[in-house]
Structures are given as structure tokens and as C-alpha cells.
Write a structure and sequence with these properties.
With 151 residues, the protein is α+β, with helices and mostly antiparallel strands. It has helices at residues 5-39, 50-76, 124-129, and strands at residues 92-95, 99-102, 106-111, 114-119, 137-140, 143-150. The protein folds into 2 domains: 5-76; 92-150, no CATH class. A 6-stranded mixed beta sheet has the order 3-4-2-1-6-5. Helix 1 runs antiparallel to helix 2.
Length: 151
């Protein structure tokens, strides 16, 4: 059975929604830390005050925010009008193990009884399956994968 473009769009939207929820949570946490740090009085007798430490932590946490934003933009850039017949960026790969969306890393989750996993193009599993077509078989670790369909 071939997977439809509507199904692929639904899955991409699910991935984007999951990433945006994480981004929102991280952003709110960072804002709370900044507001808390700004309300504290600095202690000039210490090398670095608590407020400065919290602001430094918030700066470090902005890196994951940037990364999540890049992943969301990557997922949004997947072109549904281009036919995909091999494993490459933007492909939704249906295997005997799970559905893999190539574009951004995402921990496994279940949707309508099927397992979905996001893979970045840097992931070793993606690199192993890159360029393969439907009906191809390959091993990664101890798992044997069979590609049923690609869209």
C-alpha cells in the first residue's frame, strides 16, 4: 500500500507541532529565569552574582532554542510537490520497524498505532539507508530493516 501525500503532510505537521511545543516550553523556562534574575539584586562582593549566573545559563539555553528553530524550519522546508523514490531529505520512509521522517531528529512516538521516528541527515541510521529504494533491506546494529515504501 502506497502512503499518500496527505498522510505525509499529517506526519510532518505532527513533527512540527511536537518541536514547537518543546520550543515553547524551553522559551517560557528561559523567560522565567531571566525575569527572576533581573529582579534579584547583584552582589558586588562576589565574582559573579546569582543574577549574572542565571543570565549566563539563559544564554546557554538559547542555543537549544536556536537548534529547535532550525529543526522546525527544516521540517517546514520539506517540499511535498517533489516525488521522492529513495531515502533522502524530506522522505517519509515506511519500514518494518517504524516510519522514519528524514529532516530532523525526533524521539520515537506512537500515532494511530504506528511508531514514528525523526532522523536528521547526520544520523548514522540515515547515512546507512541514504539512497536506498523501496523493497531494499539493510542491517543497522542488530536490527534488520526492510523498506516497504517511500514518499
Amino acid at each position: 500500500m502506497s502512503i499518500s501525500l496527505d498522510f505525509k503532510q499529517e506526519i510532518i505537521t505532527l513533527f512540527i507541532d511536537k518541536k514547537e511545543a518543546i520550543l515553547s516550553e524551553v522559551s517560557e523556562d528561559q523567560e522565567d529565569k531571566i525575569i527572576g534574575a533581573e529582579s534579584e539584586e547583584d552582589n558586588p562582593d562576589t565574582y559573579e552574582s546569582t543574577a549574572e549566573q542565571v543570565l549566563d545559563e539563559a544564554d546557554l539555553e538559547s542555543k537549544p532554542i536556536g537548534f529547535l528553530t532550525e529543526e522546525i524550519n527544516s521540517l517546514k522546508s520539506i517540499n511535498l510537490e517533489v516525488a521522492v523514490n529513495e531515502v533522502s531529505f524530506g522522505a517519509l520512509v515506511h519500514t518494518n520497524y517504524a516510519y522514519f521522517l528524514i529532516g530532523a531528529a525526533q524521539e520515537p512516538f506512537m500515532h494511530n498505532g504506528s511508531k514514528f521516528i525523526g532522523l536528521s541527515t547526520e544520523a548514522p541510521l540515515f547515512q546507512k539507508m541514504e539512497g536506498l529504494k523501496a523493497k531494499a533491506e539493510f542491517h543497522f546494529g542488530t536490527i534488520e530493516y526492510i523498506i516497504f515504501d517511500i514518499i
